[in-house]
Amino acid sequence: MLTLFYGLCLFIGLHSLRELGLRSQFLSQYGTALYKSVLAIGVVISIMLIVVGKSRAGFVQLWVPPFNLRSLTHLFMISSCILVAAGNLPLSYTRALMVHPMLVGVFVWGVAHLLANGDLASMLLFGGIGLWSLWKFFYLESLPKQVKAGAAPSLVWDAAAILFGMIAYVLLLLFHGQLFGFALSTIL
Questions:
Q1: Do 127 and 94 have their domain in common?
Q2: Are residues 136 and 51 both part of a single domain?
Q3: Nearest CA to 46 among 2, 12, 97, 90?
Q4: Do 15 and 38 fall within a single domain?
Q5: Which of the pair, 147 or 116, is modelled with greater confidence?
Q6: Which of 31, 29, 33, 53 minimizes the C-alpha distance to 41?
Q7: What residues contact 175, with CB distance under 8 A and at least 6 apart?
Q8: Average model confidence (pLDDT) for the chain?
Q9: Is it the case that residue 67 has pLDDT exceeding 80?
Q10: Residues 51 and 70 grouped into a single domain
Q11: CB-neighbour burial class of residue 77 (10 A; exposed 0-12, middle 13-18, buried 19+)
Q12: Alpha-carbon span 95 to 84, nearest angstrom
């Protein structure tokens, strides 16, 4: 469980450098290339620690997830995948109307997994990253707004977000067992 905790702390810490006032300091001292390299290596290490820590964590049941919420969990995951895709594509109406769709998608991902898992390690993982995304969302919203002149939103990018989000959801559904040790589909 400690490995999971360290991985979460590293992941959240690296994704909070701007909010902690360390990003601009690091960039000015070492440059963009080194910053991105250190960040990428740190994120990979943090994900490895999270995966190893979650797989080795002892099972401590805190609550029993209601079986009838499985459908709601899947609906949340579909919307989460679409929102994460929209947050990584150029300007769509989703991105124009909903600020920070990727952070909202990560929060929805956390809530979906909290509905489906009632053990301590899952609470740490999904609750921790979900709370971090919520905190980061409100932090970014508190910053002065930067008006960007440019292209108008396009429905093409909304359609792409739905397409890529659904592809990601289906792949996660099919390969969840191989990737994370708990099968959601009996096809593979």
A1: yes
A2: no
A3: 12
A4: yes
A5: 116
A6: 33
A7: 188
A8: 92
A9: yes
A10: no
A11: buried
A12: 10
Taking the C-alpha atoms of residue 71 and residue 151, their distance in angstroms, rounded to an integer, is 38
pLDDT at residue 133 is higher than 90 = yes
Report the number of distinct structural domains present in the chain.
Answer: 2
Phi, psi of 151 (to 5 degrees): -65, 150
Same domain, 72 and 44: no
Rounded mean pLDDT of 52-79?
Answer: 92
Q: What is the pTM of this model?
A: 0.90
Q: Is the pLDDT of residue 188 over 80?
A: no
Please report, in angstroms and rounded to a whole number, the separation of the first and last CA atoms in the chain: 30
Assess contact for 56 and 3: CB atoms under 8 A: yes
Specify whether 22 is located in the same domain as 75: no
* Domain span including residue 128: 59-188
Q: Are residues 147 and 188 in the same domain?
A: yes
Same domain, yes or no: 124 and 147: yes
Query: Quick one: pLDDT at residue 167?
Result: 98
| Closest alpha carbon to 126 in 167, 173, 180 | 180
Nearest Cα neighbor of 133 from 161, 154, 112 is 112
Q: What angle do CA 123, 131, 116 make, to 5 degrees?
A: 35
| 3-state secondary structure at position 31 | coil
Contacts of 79 (CB under 8 A, 6+ apart): 105, 108
